[in-house]
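Hey,
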Amino acid sequence: MRFRVTLETKNNVVTKSKGRGRQGFKDGCKPPRRCGFKVGVAFDKNELKSNETMKKYRTGYKFAWGIPRVRQYMSQIGLKAPGTYSKNQHNGVMFALPSEVQMSGNQAGTIARLCYKAGGTHSQLENVRKMLSYAHQLTTGSKKGNFREVYEQWESQNPDGYLRPTQKIKAEVSPDCESVEKMMTTPFDEAKGMPYPRWNVGLLLVFDSLCSGARSVTDLHRIKMAPDHVFAPSQGWMSTSMKGGRAKLERRKGTRRWCVYRPCLCPEGKHVPPPEDWHQHVDMMSNPKNITWCTNCPLNAFQCIRDLLPEEDIRSYPAWLEAQQRYRKDNLGEESMKKLVAAWIDLQGGNPDGLKYDTNGGRKTLGKLCQKYGVLYHESFELHGDLWCTWAKYYQEKLARDPLFKRRTQSKNPDVCLVALRKFARGFRSGVAATPSVKQQLENLRSQINAILGHLN
């Protein structure tokens, strides 16, 4: 178990927090007694996989088993019903070790074909393919890949034959720039009914989602499980390291370190922190009686959350218990985070028309902010990490391409990572003013020249 380590210097504070949150079936699971080398290695490989990946395997297995014709065939080749395996890293839902599955290429291809013929969405069949890839790894001992027959069957599928998706993936309705500006410049108001400790958590969730483009499930979970923070209020910023790096960047190149940054939003660009004893002067709802600081500054929100947690426990998204007037030992769950985000947006006047915002619309809003405030691609990249072709196609229209920018990792220089966020802060008429370095000014000039040349061509 990791406990917080604090390094205090004149300008910043580095903290490490205890890991908390929902665990997967593999967390805490022990390897079989007297297991051989092959089984032991497979167990270790499962430990390296994320809980999301392991969950997709189980989803694919249960979907395949739920189809009568496929279930009959799976039983014939020795596979068991979900939940009947011995307790393993999938809690007995499916096989997890080489000793629990033996599958040939023809058998795997047959399962994939039967699932396709029975009908399924692209996502459902994709989960089946990933499950079969997992069986291939356990059967052959390879690190990745799939059976040749599964590849052949997948290439023979007609996309027009897929069923309609059961879930909407692409966001369509998200807050606009004016709504974000209003939310981020409206201070805390106890008359609106939300306790200040819970309001602070909502502020961080909304800021990370809309201004940093954190995905509603994977990215927020990685921020929730953050292994460390860098808190530099005198410089007007803080960062939170995402556990496992930025989501969807680890598939081909391995884990890529990524941090979520938060800038100061105090008026006139001068950070004003809360008094050290603010939490000793609160009412029955834990609302401060005399507010002398900017409550809508993310740094102050994080600071106030930290003041109400034990010294060894620093988290961004703890759940608030109103009955006991304290934070829970657990973080907010996935659904609780979505509800708090929606409630906080409504409370701050960010949804004047009463629309139903898509819960995965954070990156859509980030694209709107980048477009409005003239954020260049190499500046916004430090927030979202997407390739230019992806970001320009789905999120920020009319984005000039920078052919010389090839980096796929986040810069380790906070000033580089904060350029876009500080543009937002100036647009909100608050925050620390950004002073670009000579190198940054040259990069901006280079991007503008490339954009002009691109239009001329």
